[in-house]
Write a structure and sequence with these properties.
Shape: globular
Largest sheet: 5 strands, mixed
Number of domains: 2
Structural class: alpha+beta
Low-confidence stretches: 1-30, 197-212, 252-261, 263-283, 317-326
Number of strands: 9
Radius of gyration: 20 Å
Order of helices and strands: EEHEEHEEHHEEEHHHHHH
Strand content: 5-15%
Mean pLDDT: 73
Number of helices: 10
Length: 329
């Protein structure tokens, strides 16, 4: 299966086929996620008021405070059940999603706290990430916000690839590795979001390109719509290049051939390395970038190799005193 959004391809776990219509009163065997009623989630967001919307991320995402768990959370409206469809089938698919997501627990994944399958409503509740996305910090225009330094960027990259390795080990292929899906918590710890599988939100690879995802999608996924173990490695390579160059993955310069970050990065060591990221430091991850973003998925570095390389880059950097300048925005 190779749906474009959200960013996951994994074998579904079996759930009871006789899931009740009001699934918020049921439990999922083996799951750690809680169940919430629609009334409780509506109260947490003041009936999903625009004042509680998390702007700049995915649609239907709200910040709310749940008194029952004394926690600020992110509440994602998945979909409403089609009145003309099969409620039993919809419950089965949605509970399979909740079960699968609740079974993925890692310091570099945004954890699922719970879900709501109350009546026609299908809602997921995640932990809230207070520092926004990596995209916000790389390309945001907030006045007075200091750019991320080199060490912070490399530590973020190392955390992202550890999350990807965990999902690879679980047999999960994460499609949408991009800076807007990498959220930051305390200490700038990165966490991958958008790893749910929703049958109601399938898009083709062509549709993903149209919506601006193509810059981080592996060539084989764009061509075939299929995922391979190396597909997420490619996306990670693009994000790493984005962190180093300060350019968006899908910048739109005047030259159409220069629009794709990977295709236009042949001279990135000399043209884009500025501030703390001097040309001599950029040469250190250049081999890793070439291996991760190779156009042939069979030639890309295995995810375990990328983890090892990024761990070294994150902790071995020791710039000379004269090189302390602002990092690229």
């Amino acid at each position: 299966m190779a749906s474009c959004f959200p960013c996951l391809s994994a074998r579904k776990k079996e759930v009871p086929r006789s899931a009740p219509a009001n699934a918020h009163t049921s439990s999922i065997p083996g799951a750690v996620a809680r169940t919430f009623s629609f009334k409780e989630l509506a109260a947490a967001t003041r009936n999903f008021s625009d004042a509680y919307r998390i702007v700049g991320r995915e649609d239907g995402l709200y910040k709310g405070f749940l008194k029952s768990i004394n926690q600020v959370v992110a509440i994602k409206l998945q979909h409403a059940v089609d009145p003309g469809g099969s409620a039993e089938q919809d419950n089965t698919e949605f509970l399979a999603l909740a079960l699968m997501m609740s079974g993925l627990r890692h310091p570099n994944l945004v954890n699922l706290i719970g879900f709501c399958a109350d009546g026609r409503h299908r809602i997921l509740v995640h932990e809230y990430m207070p520092f926004g996305s990596l995209e916000d910090h790389l390309h945001g225009s907030s006045p007075g916000k200091a750019p991320l330094d080199w060490n912070t960027r490399m530590n973020i990259a190392a955390g992202v690839v550890r999350g990807l390795e965990y999902m690879h080990d679980k047999g999960v292929l994460y499609r949408c590795v991009k800076s807007s899906n990498i959220l930051l918590g305390d200490g700038y710890r990165p966490k991958l979001s958008q790893y749910g599988l929703a049958e109601h939100d399938q898009l083709s690879a062509v549709a993903a390109i149209t919506r601006g995802t193509w810059g981080t999608m592996a060539p084989e996924t764009v061509m075939t719509g299929k995922l391979f173990p190396g597909s997420s490695v490619y996306g990670f390579g693009v994000v790493l290049l984005e962190m180093i160059t300060g350019r968006r993955a899908t910048d739109a310069p005047h030259d159409v051939e220069d629009r794709h970050l990977v295709a236009s990065s042949a001279g990135w060591q000399t043209r884009r390395c500025r501030g703390d990221i001097r040309p001599w430091t950029c040469r250190r991850p250049s081999k890793l970038l070439r291996c991760a973003s190779h156009k042939d998925h069979a030639m890309r570095a295995p995810i375990g190799t990328v983890v090892t390389a990024l761990s070294r880059l994150a902790y071995d950097f020791d710039p000379p005193e004269s090189s302390h300048h602002a990092a690229p925005n």
